[in-house]
From TrEMBL:
It comes from the Bacteria. Residues 346-360 have a biased composition (Low complexity). Signal peptide: none annotated. Residues 48-151 form the MobA/VirD2-like nuclease domain. This is Relaxase/Mobilisation nuclease domain-containing protein. Residues 346-374 are annotated as: Disordered. It comes from Mariniphaga anaerophila. It holds the Pfam family Relaxase.
Length: 406
């Protein structure tokens, strides 16, 4: 079981997210603790907020007094509502929130049923509940609950390179929720040194990322939008702006994350492990497929960038164990595109280069599988107007496409 803990300043936002699921009959309330219970059994945002207000009013100095927790058993684990309720209550008691008001929602909008819990980190006296080492404690609680309820241990899910991030499946719908389950963890806990590496990682999980520049209210802005990819690597559905997923997925915060990642990668020497693994695997591999398979078994994915002729012009590696994504060139000249191309380049590429050595139809990673950019011109400054919403954005993409066709 995996637990995700986030803090915020707005109790309304945390409740609204879950009550939106209630309205759609995609969730239900399993448990409340020290909260006002409605006569008709129907919980409203207003009633729930009233239960939390005295605690929030007791200490207004705490910046992020709201805690939002999700508990996610393995999809194979089938728990009854009673078991889910017991699990949530035990988790909150051990975490130190047994005397706090909290509400437990069971989400049923996807096959993997899971829990969301909303509470506050300030007690009735105004004292803040200490959250030092909270994530470490949460992990220990999850291991204990896995044993008690016979759940699949989280570390057993990390086999053959399959980790907690789940690729988006556009056929299953609810794309916003699926994309959120990728972009939020990536932005908050992965290490990358460029926007291109950030994009490459998302593409592995069928999520397309693009920068958007424009003008709003007389001011230039620089933002990011996300979209799902289909089996052909083409954008499916409407793009979703980063604000829908939280501040950590936006342009400015990601720039800060990139700078911090550079420092962390250098100080912790994250390159050492993958560099040795990739080097050893490269020497022992019979062909490209064998190289990719052997790497994946050691927790590393590789994405090769190719042009139309099949020439490899770049490689991006994803170290799942260290949550680290990097271009091969960062490891040194022994890991350059030319080295991989000489070993894994296609016969078609070699023939075409022999016939016309001066031609180069290389596509950059930003252009690969990106009808998205081709249609919208996202990497150019576009005046998106005062109302920056997805529908207006799509209309502009369609108009641009029609102009190109003319």
């Amino acid at each position: 079981m995996v637990a995700k803990i986030s803090s915020g300043s707005s109790i309304y936002s945390a409740l609204a997210y879950n009550h939106d699921k209630l309205k759609k009959d995609a969730a239900k309330v399993l448990l409340v603790n020290k909260m006002i219970e409605p006569v008709d059994g129907k919980y409203s945002i207003g009633l729930c907020s009233t239960s939390f207000e005295p605690y929030l009013s007791a200490n207004k100095r705490t910046e992020n007094p709201v805690i939002h927790i999700s508990l996610n058993p393995d999809p194979k684990d089938k728990l009854s509502d009673e078991q889910f309720t017991q699990l949530a209550e035990l988790y909150m008691n051990i975490l130190g929130y047994g005397n706090q008001p909290y509400i437990v929602y069971k989400h049923e909008d996807i096959d993997r049923h899971h829990l969301h819990i909303v509470s506050v980190k300030v007690d009735e006296t105004g004292k803040m509940i200490r959250d030092n080492f909270q994530h470490r404690l949460s992990m220990r609680i999850c291991r204990e609950l896995e044993q008690k309820f016979g759940l699949t241990p989280a570390n057993e899910k990390q086999k053959d390179g399959v980790y907690n991030l789940k690729p988006v499946d556009y056929k299953k719908g609810d794309l916003k929720h699926q994309i959120a389950n990728v972009v939020r963890p990536v932005a908050g806990s992965w290490y990358f040194q460029s926007f291109k590496e950030y994009k490459a990682l998302h593409s592995l999980y069928n999520v397309h990322v693009a920068e958007v520049r424009g003008e709003k209210g007389g001011k230039l802005f620089h933002g990011i939008v996300y979209a799902a990819l289909d089996e052909k690597g083409e954008v499916f559905g409407n793009p979703i702006k980063s604000s829908k997923f939280g501040k950590t997925t936006g342009y400015e915060v990601l720039q800060v994350r990139i700078e911090k990642s550079k420092e962390h990668i250098k100080n912790i020497k994250l390159k050492e492990r993958p560099k040795q693994v990739i080097s050893d695997t490269f020497q022992k591999s019979r062909n490209r497929k064998d190289f990719e398979t052997k790497l994946l078994k050691q927790g590393i994915s590789v994405l090769f960038w190719e042009n139309d002729a099949g020439r490899i012009y770049g490689a991006t590696f994803i170290d799942h164990k260290q949550k680290f994504v990097f271009n091969g060139s960062r490891l040194g000249k022994d890991f350059s595109a030319n080295v991989f191309n000489e070993r894994f380049g296609t016969q078609k590429q070699q023939q075409e280069e022999t016939q016309s050595p001066q031609s180069d139809t290389t596509k950059h990673p930003e252009q690969a599988n990106s009808s998205f950019e081709n249609l919208s011109g996202l990497l150019e400054i576009q005046p998106l107007g005062e109302n920056y919403e997805e529908e207006a954005f799509i209309r502009r993409m369609k108009r641009k496409k029609r102009r190109i066709q003319k």
